[in-house]
Amino acid sequence: MPDDDRPLAALLPALRRGVPIDEVKAAAHATAADPQCIQALLDLLIHPSGFSRIQRQKAAWVVHHAFQLDERAFLPLRAELGLALDATEDPSALRELLKVLASPLWADAETEVQRTDALELAAGLLHVEDVPVAVHYAAMQTLQSRAQCASEVRESLETLNALHGRLGAENAPLRTCAERYIKRFRQKLARTKSPS
């Protein structure tokens, strides 16, 4: 096996169904401690053919948990995270990658194009009804950390209001969360408006 495949080969046993949580957490710790492991998992997510759905989901889970352990290790990898997100079709993997990209850490590290792409993706995901609720939570976090100018805040507020309007009593926790974000965005909009 070539040297480049060794980090991934060491992680593959943890990327399967039924692995005890302690083993998956150990894989996250190993990943956070080794930039080659981080890159190997991102490569798996960027080029998912040849890997099972479970492997892709677990890889995204490990990436998210490794990010929680050492956010700074991911700073030079913002472009790769974007590519992994673009290549992800599985809602479970999408949720985990969005949790990483929802972090305010990226505010100073990403380009303007990356910031606006993340903002547009988050707004779009709030209009999609058949994704896991956690995707909506991560999308709201992403809106909050990416909307800067008054027009972006206004558009984000409209998106949040649309989401809130679709949610019924069966989605009470998400509805309550949306209400909190709506309040924050109204306050942010009031601060960004120029005095008349």
What does this structure look like?
The chain is mostly helical. The chain folds into two domains: 1-82, Methyltransferase, Methionine Synthase (B12-binding Domains), Chain A, domain 1; 102-196, no CATH class. The protein contains ten helices and no strands. Helix 2 crosses helix 3 and helix 5 (78-87) runs antiparallel to helix 6 (91-101). The protein is globular and about 55 Å long. The protein starts with 5 loop residues before the first helix and ends with a helix. The relative contact order is 0.08.
Write the layout of secondary structure elements.
Blueprint: H1 6-11, H2 21-33, H3 35-46, H4 53-69, H5 78-87, H6 91-101, H7 112-125, H8 133-146, H9 150-166, H10 172-192
Helix pairs in contact: 2-3, 2-4, 3-4, 3-5, 4-6, 5-6, 6-8, 7-8, 8-10, 9-10
